[in-house]
Each structure stands twice: as C-alpha cells, then as structure tokens.
Write a structure and sequence with these properties.
The complex is a heterodimer of chains A (369) and B (125).
Chain A: H1 15-20, E1 24-28, E2 31-36, H2 40-49, E3 52-55, E4 60-65, H3 69-76, E5 89-95, E6 101-111, E7 114-119, H4 124-133, E8 140-143, E9 148-154, H5 158-163, E10 178-183, E11 186-191, E12 200-206, H6 210-221, E13 227-228, H7 231-240, H8 275-284, E14 288-295, E15 306-309, E16 312-323, E17 328-336, E18 345-350, E19 353-360
Parallel strand pairs in A: 3-13
Antiparallel strand pairs in A: 1-2, 3-9, 4-7, 4-8, 5-6, 6-7, 9-12, 10-11, 11-12, 14-17, 14-19, 15-16, 15-18, 16-17, 18-19
Chain B: E1 7-8, E2 13-18, E3 21-26, H1 28-34, E4 37-41, E5 48-49, E6 54-60, E7 64-68, E8 73-78, H2 81-84, H3 88-91, E9 100-104, H4 116-123
Antiparallel strand pairs in B: 1-2, 2-3, 3-9, 4-6, 5-8, 6-7, 8-9
The chains are: A alpha+beta (369), B alpha+beta (125).
Chain lengths: 369, 125
C-alpha cells in the first residue's frame, strides 16, 4: 500500500473533479486515475442496477482520413472494415506480423474517407507509431487524444440519463453504432458502446468541456441514483462480462485465436498485418485458449497466478477477482485447449497452495434484455 | 479514531495486550486503503506466530495484502465471523472485526510498537 502524488503522471481534464469528489487516485499505466469514489462494490452495483458515470478520457483517439483511409485501416486491423456502415463501430485490433496484439481497439466509420479509432491509454503512442509505420497507403494519420475527453454512461438507466442532454434519439442508435450531435451543449460523438456488459453510451467530447458535461450528466442521473464509478468497478464489470483487457487477456505474445476472438479475424477480406501468422496458427491448431473459471472453494485466483491441471503447471490467470453481481470469485485464464471445456476441474496456485476451481464459459454475466 | 490502549505496526496492524493475551487486528487506515474487503485468511488456533512475520492475508476487490503479526506467541482464537462477513473489517476494524487472539510469549515486544500518537504521526495525520 502506498500513497502517491500526481506529479509526473498524465491527467485527464477531469482530474480536479475526481479529487473534489474524494476519489482514490492511482497510477494506471502512467495516468492519474480514480480507482474508486464511494467503493468498488457500491459503484459496481450502481452500474448493474441504475447508472454509473466513468471518466475514461485516458483512452486514446487516432483519426485516419483521406482517400486511402479505408485501405490503411483495413490493412492494420484484422476485422473487415469493408463491412462497416457509416455510423457503425467495430471491435478490432492492431496486430504484429507474428499475430500477437499491439492493442485491441474500436474502429468507428465517420465517413468513407474518415475512420476514428479508440485505443487503450497506455498503448496510444505505440499504436500511433505502428499505424504510421504501416502507412504505405499515404492516408492521413492524426494522433488526436488531446482533443477528446471520453465519458461512459452505463447501466439500465443510462439512456434515460443521457437522453435528457441531447436531441439525438439514443434509442434509435443500435448497439455498436454512433451518431454525432450536440450533447450537454457541446459537439459530441455519441456511441452505443461500453465495457461493462450493460447498455449505455460513450461520449467523445472536446476536452475543455469535460468538467461541465460531467456535472450535467451527474445532475441528469440524480433521479436514477447515478454514481461516479472508477476503474475498480470498471474492472469487476468487464470481468463479469468476459471482456478482454490489454496486458491481461491479450498481449503481444497472445493471438486473437488464442484469446477467443476469432470473430474479429476475417481471413477472406484480403491481406492484413498478422494474417499469414494467424492463418498458419489456425491450420496448425492453437495449443492454449482463454477460458473462464470459478473458484469452488475459498480463495481468489488473481492475475498472474499459475493454473495447474492434474497436478501439472498448465497455464496462468489473466484476470481474477470477486464478481459482485454473481457472488462468486471468478476469473479468466489460459489453459491447454484439451482442458478448456466448461466444467473441467483445475487448480489455481494461491500463495503456493493449490486451490480448486472449475472452468466456466465466458461471459459470466449477460444482462437480461 | 485510534484507541490509546492499542499499539500499532508500520504495516498497519494493531494489538491490544490484556494480561498474557494480545488481540490483533488491522487499522482503520489499512481497511480504508484496501477498500471493500472480500476475503480474510487467518491462522488456526495452535499456530505459533512471530513478531513481524506473515500470519495471513486480507483481500479487497482489487488486491491481496499480507498481515504481519505485531507480537509473538500462539494463536488461541481466530475470528470466525470474518469468514462469512469480511466486510465487517471495513465497518469496525478496531472492534468486532478483530482478527486473532494470541497468547503472548514475549509481552515486552509491545514496547517495539507505536503508540496511537506515534501511529497517527506516522500516517501524517
């Protein structure tokens, strides 16, 4: 346990807002970010039962424009950008030639010659360099992170909350689609995306307006019991929803096929960075795969703990912790493919003691629709 | 906030010595730093413990943290209630959510620990 000063860390435009709210701030990949306000479990439940507001302005934005924009985006990502319609978003990745992840990203098609990428905070400089390096197409690549703040409004009452602040009909924006319009009096990109397993929106705003918009969202959500939610709740929510986190489920040495993300790899779309390696991996067959697990006795399997099968080292935990909605201790781990079917008994090494767990399908939680 | 009759460690445990028994817990500061506590691992009665050595762990949603024994001796009781209600550690860390009781083998060790005033100064409060 250690305190830290915000000195050398990067800040979002909402840093003062978080400190005024009494948030516990932590160093998250070089960013001074709120891990919790009132408490992780309380914030988690607010998002599952009502609505929560997250500052995720640390996320990076990269904009790709010009007649060659499509060619570049389609080459540096494994998903089929040709399938994207205007106003649609797509979960995808940036991959190395060897098939491992540079990052996982969201691709938004703003126009035929304009794609808007949302990337992970701690990867954004690396991502930008990677895209520029592959830009043999002469598209315009802009590192745009400083321009934008990003607020995520998530939970069953999220759309009601957000709708009070915009004339854009949110219920008509389908999941993984977006619209540009005025939000809380400022120009915004409003996307029906999220990282919680709940419905909601993620709103990209001019950085200078973030603090004012935050206050308006909190006021709009007051009648529903809105709570500011930090990175702690964001993590428990995404873990229950079985969503990958860079540096945990996906890394430079993990491929999308191993991560259970074959759906974002479209071999038939033409060449893309990493295609040859992934095709070879698919033909040969993968050895390990991401699976869920649930602790069956006391104990919590956490990130990095070793996984044993039949008494032998067999893999590792990528993320693990308590699931507040499910009242279980859950996690995700890599295991040999032959041990990955749901219901297999595995052991997690917790402080040098093997503790019983059982493999489970991902996701653990699906909202009632 | 911090009872005057307790003694405190730099690792944020407390001990209350009464006769040859020491009651051990974690401090208000420790639970606040950890956040929502979801799991506590404690030594069983009969376990020999040594001042400054790990005796168990307390886990919050985010992290696992070792518990160090503030005194040496033998565990005579562990707080069973925390197995099913670990959140008590957030609610009343200096009271009902004590962790273990130890039969002290070296009562003089208490003098190595901080007083409430020392501990608050240590916390910078």
């Amino acid at each position: 346990m250690s305190e830290h000063a915000a000195g050398s860390l990067k800040q979002t435009p909402l840093n003062a807002t978080h400190r005024k709210l009494g948030a516990r701030m932590v160093d998250f990949g070089g960013w001074d970010m709120p891990v919790q306000y009132s408490g992780i479990i309380e914030e988690h439940h607010a998002v599952r039962r009502a609505v929560g507001l997250f500052d995720v302005s640390h996320m990076g934005e990269i904009e790709i424009r010009g007649p060659q924009a499509f060619a570049l985006v389609n080459f540096v990502t494994p998903n089929d950008v040709g399938k994207l319609k205007l106003g649609q978003a797509q979960y995808s990745a940036l991959l190395y030639e060897h098939g491992g992840f540079v990052d996982d990203i969201l691709v938004h098609k703003v126009a035929d010659d304009h794609y808007f990428l949302c990337v992970n905070a701690s990867n954004q400089e690396k991502d930008y360099a990677h895209i520029v390096e592959h830009n043999k197409f002469d598209a315009q690549v802009e590192f745009a992170s400083e321009k934008y703040a990003l607020l995520a409004i998530q939970g069953p009452r999220a759309l009601e909350t957000a709708q009070k602040l915009t004339a854009v009909p949110l219920a008509q924006i389908r999941y993984y689609h977006f619209a540009d319009g005025e939000f809380a009096g400022v120009p915004a990109r409003i996307a029906r995306t999220g990282y919680t397993g709940e419905i909601g929106v993620e709103t990209y705003l001019p950085a200078a307006d973030a603090a004012a918009v935050w206050e308006k969202v909190m006021a709009a959500g007051e009648e529903f019991g809105i709570k500011p939610a930090g990175l702690g709740a964001r993590n428990t929510l995404r873990l229950e929803a079985g969503m990958a986190l860079y540096g945990h489920e996906i890394t430079a040495t993990i491929s999308p096929l191993e991560a259970g993300l074959g759906r974002i790899v479209k071999f038939d779309k033409g060449d893309f960075a990493g295609r040859a390696a992934l095709l070879a991996q698919q033909e040969k067959g993968i050895a390990r795969i991401l699976t869920g697990f649930e602790m069956t006795t006391r104990g919590i399997g956490r990130d990095g703990y070793e996984v044993f099968v039949h008494g032998q080292p067999a893999g590792w935990v990528t993320s693990g912790g308590p699931a507040p909605t499910l009242h279980k201790n859950i996690g995700m781990c890599y295991v040999p493919v032959e041990n990955s079917q749901p219901g297999r008994e595995i052991q997690i090494m917790i402080r040098n003691q093997p503790v019983e767990a059982v493999t489970r399908p991902i996701p653990f939680y699906k909202r009632a629709s | 906030m911090y009872p005057e009759n307790y003694r405190y460690t730099k690792e944020h445990e407390w001990v209350l010595a009464e006769g040859d028994t020491g009651t051990v817990g974690i401090t208000f500061h420790a639970q606040k730093e950890l956040g929502d506590i979801v799991y506590v691992d404690l030594p069983k009665p009969g376990t020999a413990v040594e001042q400054g050595k790990t005796i168990g762990s307390v886990e919050s949603v985010k992290a696992v943290s070792d518990i160090y024994s503030p005194v040496s001796g033998e565990v005579v009781e562990s707080n069973e209630e925390l197995a099913t209600a670990p959140e008590k550690l957030n609610e009343d860390p200096h009271g009902v959510a004590w962790l273990i009781k130890i039969r002290l083998s070296a009562p003089g060790e208490i003098n190595n620990l901080m007083t409430a005033a020392d501990y608050q100064a240590y916390l910078g409060e």
